[in-house]
Amino acid sequence: MKNNKKGSGSKEDLKNILYRGKTLKIVYFVGVVFYAMFVFYMVGEANKLGLSEEEIAKQQKINEFVAEQMEDGHIGGEEKLILEEYKNEISTYDFESYKQETGDFYVYFYSPYCPYCAEVGETIVDVLGDKGVNFVVVDVNKKREFQERENASTLPKVVRYENGEYVDEIVGANVKEDYEEFVTRDKKDGKDGKGKKDIKE
Q1: Which whole number is the average pLDDT over 23-44?
Q2: Residue 78 lies in a domain
Q3: How many domains are there within the chain?
Q4: Which of 33, 57, 61, 26 minimizes the C-alpha distance to 43?
Q5: Which structural domain range is residue 129 located in?
Q6: Is residue 65 part of a domain?
């Protein structure tokens, strides 16, 4: 009876493996079909707009580049806009220990390839420094896992932590007065999600 059970189990395992293999093939095939349909659609739309084959190929390369960058956590364009680290910058690796040891602080999340970060980064750092608060700067580019854990994929972003816990944030390219108001805001306003600032475009 033992041998029969073992043989039965092996057959079931084989069936499951074959089933999963077929499923993956079907998913892959469907994906290829949809991609082909998308390409044909784009070509049709491009022809309507009078775009050349060269322009179509260029747009396809841009789409592929954007998809690839999103997958590996790249935030921004191809050109590196911020060439030097900030004075209070620490790595994503050191951030967790800093968060536990420091307790109450602000952090500015940015990417050196992000144009909005390049636009307001110096302003943010100046405001945090002028207010005399504990703060650090963290480059989150191509740190996909960290971005998801700290919700730091939309930049620029300044976050306030109390006792190592998230309290409040301000996101997007804002004017200096908004950052000053955020830092001086009554800390009670930030608890349980209150006082969150939306992106300004």
Answers
A1: 60
A2: no
A3: 2
A4: 57
A5: 89-193
A6: yes
